Amino acid sequence: MGSRVRLRGELHVHSTFSDGRDSPDQIILEAINRELDFISITDHDTFKGSLKAARAVNSMNLDIVVIIGAEIRSDEGDLLIYCPETPIDRFPSSALELADYAREHDCIAIPAHPFDIHRKGIGDLVYSYRWDAIEVFNAFSDMFSNRKAQQAAKEMNIPGIAGSDAHVLETIGSALTLVEVNELSAEEIIKSIKKGDVKPLPGRPGPLGVTSTVVWSIKKRFRKKEVLEYESYSYDFYGKI
After folding, report:
1. Contact yes or no for 169/30 (Cβ under 8 A)
2. pTM, rounded to two decimals
């Protein structure tokens, strides 16, 4: 067995496959620019972003590991699902059933920002399951929510990770996770998270990251409004015919 290596990575990012501004390819190049060793693109309710990123890394032979991931909305709140290769093929509506199903397929389930009510955390349900890890620091969650998550992980003796919850390139790497591994692979990183060979690196986005996020949030709202108005107009128009 070779000597263990400590890796720096980003475990919570959104791309154009859900509500992020930038494409998986752009995110991968930014992660490499920030000298990250691994990344997971965790789009809402889809693995398409991370699968696209993995294909890009393989085709261009880039020096970064992509962990197949997604942020899945259960009835009780959001879970981050990470898989070594093949993503799970269905999403049970119950958070606990989703976690069990992920484990059955060699994936891991981690409550995202569990005590952040504005980001649909699972709240006290975090105490009802032996999670593989807990997101103890989210770069966009409030201090109180993050502290509650850290306390829960400590009380339950469960590993903690940190993530930026980035929706724009400028905030990637705001909060990172250190992982000690024997080899550079998604499977090894996931195993190390489960074993607790991890350390969250809390951090907040800088002024540029905050500004870019706010601007993108406003643009998303206008786009959504335009779509809704167009759909309403189309319905009225064809209804009159």
Report:
1. yes
2. 0.91
